[in-house]
Design brief:
The structure holds 2 protein chains of 2 kinds. Chain A is α+β, with helices and mostly antiparallel strands. Chain A has 8 helices and 19 strands. In chain A, helix 2 crosses helix 7. Chain B is built from 4 helices and 9 strands; from the N terminus they run βββαβββββααβα. The chains are: A alpha+beta, B alpha+beta.
């Protein structure tokens, strides 16, 4: 493994647990443990999986009104977040494209923001340039873990009173492991928690969880198939600088106060591109993110081109994420198609190793999510 | 007689028919196997032709024919249940059988000891 890769505070534990390590976003990360991707995926859906996501960026935004300030950079209503509530958000650019998708929690007097590992530096630069009155405090001494699955609450409740947290709610829990920040959230389509904890407490805390019968360590491989079954986007694959929120099917994440006619309409990069698209009829040729189900058993992965007919010369779309879905038991994918072909049930053709194989547009998620509402 | 290739296939010769599969080491490296495409019976294959596609949870990989000949039998059970390859790669989960013209082509491949050294 490259010498210049960063390590998370759980690195030694990963090796001890027999993880296969891979480079990911500048870090050496576990892609799978001894169970393997398939069993790790199924275990998370059946009980609880522990993920090391310490490579992700954690920052605080402090100042007079960081919520209003952050609204300069995202189309979400951050001012509308009640204390301790969390929201999915994204940075946009002048073309209406997405620079990164993030999680924002409003806490007492400041915001806690989690950034994608690969976008961390660019996000911080973008905030430095675009925020007027907030200080950006990069947190460099905390690990981030995720405990996901139907038994996550049972497991974590032995250590913290997390039953009281609703989905997308976070709080601080003083403990023997220091001040632990826990939110009821995640990226697996399951109930679960994300836990920010001081570096030197992280390993002991992880071991305490792993000693519980419900909990197994889960690598990035299963993290990817879990989020894909849940219909969630991977930044860099399913959304990027060139995809706007309408194309990405993420308009549900733009709240009314920021839309045309809202109290705090626009005022974010690309607002003049995005807002008119929200209120007018879709251009049938504009692309849309869709769920796709290959009819056969062969997985169709990222980069597979989609054709309207089995003999049409030019592709109409492309797959951006694809894998075998362990819970649903068949291959699944996400990709982009012209809006006119984005209706569930539409049949298309994916070209795999020179052969055109049928694939159907399907609703997302592939499996109903199991969030604690 | 059993031989092994550098591409982690095993070949078992019985008369003029060679059974081909992947090694236990190979299935372990591939991870959970979810899809297998085998050649059609009757196909004439030449050494190094890509004849099998294996998809694991991680990626797609090809397997080349290690030898010239005619495909005379394929293992349908691994098409229906690809995870059998993870369970028994060097036993029941063989891939295909080839009727060969020249058993001499097997000479270049490793015996079990040499293969074990390779993956050690």
């Amino acid at each position: 493994m490259g010498e210049n890769l960063l390590k998370t505070p759980l690195h030694a534990l990963h090796l001890e647990l027999g993880a296969k390590m891979v480079p990911f976003a500048g870090y050496e990360m576990p892609v799978q443990y001894k169970l393997g991707v398939m069993k790790e995926h199924l275990h998370t859906r059946a009980a609880a999986g522990l993920f090391d996501v310490s490579h992700m960026g954690q920052i605080l935004l402090e100042g007079d009104n960081p919520a209003l300030d952050l609204e300069r950079l995202v189309p979400q209503s951050i001012c509308g977040l009640k204390p301790n509530r969390q929201r999915y958000a994204f940075f946009t650019n002048e073309d209406g494209g997405i620079e990164d998708d993030i999680m924002v929690t409003r806490r007492d007097g400041h915001l806690f923001v989690v950034l994608n590992a690969a976008c961390k530096a660019a996000d911080i630069a973008l905030m430095k340039a675009g925020l007027h009155s907030s200080d950006i405090v990069e947190i460099t001494d905390r690990a981030l873990l995720a405990l996901q699955g139907p038994a996550a609450e049972t497991a974590l409740a032995r250590l913290f009173a997390v039953e009281r947290l609703a989905f997308m709610e976070g709080d601080m829990f003083p403990s023997d492991w220091g001040n632990v920040w826990i939110s009821r959230s995640g990226y697996s389509g399951e109930d679960g928690f994300e836990i920010s904890i001081e570096f030197d407490r992280a390993e002991d805390f992880a071991r305490t969880l792993l000693a519980m019968e419900e909990v197994e360590p889960i690598g990035l491989g299963a993290r990817d198939s879990l989020r894909l079954e849940a219909g969630l986007c991977l930044y860099g694959n399913d959304i990027d600088k060139s995809t706007d929120p309408v194309q990405a099917n993420l308009t549900w994440a733009i709240q009314k106060p920021r839309r045309s006619g809202g109290d705090r309409e626009g005022g974010f990069p690309g607002d003049r591109k995005i807002l008119p698209k929200l209120s007018r009829a879709a251009d049938p040729e504009d692309r849309r993110r869709v769920g796709l189900k290959p009819e056969g058993r062969a997985p169709m992965r990222e980069g597979v081109q989609l054709f309207e007919n089995d003999n049409s010369p030019e592709p109409v779309g492309v797959i951006t994420s694809g894998a075998f879905g362990p819970t649903v038991g068949h291959p699944i994918a996400m990709g982009y198609l012209p809006a006119r072909l984005a209706e569930p049930g539409t049949r298309l053709w994916g070209e795999l190793r020179g052969k055109r194989l049928p694939v159907q547009v399907t609703p997302l998620p592939f499996r109903p999510s199991n969030y604690k509402r | 007689m059993i031989k092994f290739t550098e591409d982690h296939e095993w070949l078992s010769l019985d008369g003029d028919v060679v059974t081909v599969g992947i090694t236990d080491h190979a299935q372990e490296q591939l991870g959970d196997i979810v899809y297998i495409e085998l050649p059609e019976i009757g196909t004439q294959v030449s050494k190094d032709d890509e004849v099998v596609v294996i998809e694991s949870v991680k990626a797609a990989s090809d397997i080349a024919a290690p030898i010239d000949g005619e495909v005379v039998e394929i293992n349908e059970t691994i098409i229906d249940a690809p995870d059998k390859v993870n369970a028994d790669a060097e036993g029941a989960a063989w891939f295909f059988k080839v009727k060969i013209d020249d058993a001499g082509q097997l000479d270049e491949y490793m015996d079990e000891t040499a293969y074990k050294d390779l993956i050690a």
